[in-house]
Amino acid sequence: MKQEIMTIISQQQLAPRIFQMTLTGDLVKEMDKPGQFIHIKVPRADMLLRRPISINQINKEAKTCTIIYRTEGDGTKVFSELTTGDSLDVMGPLGNGFDVDCLTSGQKAYVIGGGIGIPPMYELSKQLKQNGIEVIHFLGYASKDVAYFQDEFIALGDTRFATDDGSFGVEGNVGNLLLDAIQKEQPDAVYACGANGMLKMVAQVFSDNPNVFLSLEQRMACGMGACYACVCHVPDDETGVKSVKVCDEGPIFRANEVVL
Ligand code: FAD
Ligand code: FES
């Protein structure tokens, strides 16, 4: 993990409240694993905590990385007002990242993303595909208006969509798509990032699969394992005191390692 002042080389709006930002800097040399995140200082003196945002794409040759974020509060609103040439104080890459080495060429992976959990799944899918893995994407959005990155995923492989209101793809959540898919085939590994309810459903549907990897989200402060702001409980702990830190032991856990 390193810290650097990175330069914004582009920023564009993909959908209402959803922005894609590309940054350049030496930190990109450290980025390898999909599912890791960067911890970004908001360039405003009164905002002390950094904001964790997943890495959406890594381009080592161009020395760039891309993030996709949704404006939620003041921090992400400030990010959305920045433009080409502006700089950001970035720490990273942080977290463990998805395990792509548990699969070998020819095997099949389900890549599942919901809402603003979709961005890190793109770099993951790219790397899986490079390793000869067949990827099937299951992407869920609230509605067609807030859907983004559909063509990029389609270019990597079979991609199925669901929206809460049925305005695009199947109506309902990605669970409907998954239940349909597993009638025909079982994946060798499952990767998911999204709301807690979606992660619980994925863990349940694939409870017999040992390779189910979930990306968790917790509020963070230091982002590097020092403050215990981001703990999550572990299963079968009668004392209720055992926990894991999402920032440095995660954010990716096997489904049976954490209480969702
Ligand atoms: P505020 O609500 O004003 O933030 C107040 C404080 O709460 C800040 O310290 C903020 O960091 C924290 N906070 C608020 N919401 C969250 C949240 N959901 N998760 C963690 N901390 C939160 N969002 C994206 O849009 N794209 C991503 O790729 C992405 N990746 C993430 C990866 C990880 C590992 C984690 C933990 C979170 C990720 N998030 C992502 C969520 C993102 O960090 C929050 O939306 C953001 O911090 C909100 O900041 P704010 O100042 O706009 O909102
Ligand atoms: Fe400090 Fe995780 S945010 S330990």
UniProtKB/TrEMBL annotation:
A matching Pfam family: NAD_binding_1
All copies of domain FAD-binding FR-type, residue ranges: 1-100
GO terms of biological process kind: 'de novo' UMP biosynthetic process
Cofactor(s) essential for the protein: [2Fe-2S] cluster; FAD
Domain of life: Bacteria
Residues annotated as signal peptide: none
Gene Ontology molecular function: any one: oxidoreductase activity
Sequence positions that bind FAD: 51-54, 68-70, 75-76
Pathway: Pyrimidine metabolism; UMP biosynthesis via de novo pathway; orotate from (S)-dihydroorotate (NAD(+) route): step 1/1
Keywords for the protein's UniProt record, in alphabetical order: 2Fe-2S, Electron transport, FAD, Flavoprotein, Iron, Iron-sulfur, Metal-binding, Pyrimidine biosynthesis, Transport
Binding-site residues, [2Fe-2S] cluster: 222, 227, 230, 247
Alphabetized PROSITE patterns for the sequence: FAD_FR
InterPro entries in the cross-refs: Cyt_c3_hydrogenase_gsu, Dihydroorotate_DH_ele_sf, Dihydroorotate_DH_Fe-S-bd, Dihydroorotate_DHASE_ETsu, FAD-bd_FR_type, FNR_nucleotide-bd, OxRdtase_FAD/NAD-bd, PyrK_electron_transfer
Cofactor: how and how many bound: Binds 1 [2Fe-2S] cluster per subunit.
Family according to the record: Belongs to the PyrK family.
HAMAP family (alphabetical): DHODB_Fe_S_bind (MF_01211)
Subunit structure: Heterotetramer of 2 PyrK and 2 PyrD type B subunits.
Job of this protein: Responsible for channeling the electrons from the oxidation of dihydroorotate from the FMN redox center in the PyrD type B subunit to the ultimate electron acceptor NAD(+).
Annotated protein name in UniProt: Dihydroorotate dehydrogenase B (NAD(+)), electron transfer subunit
Natural source organism: Enterococcus caccae ATCC BAA-1240
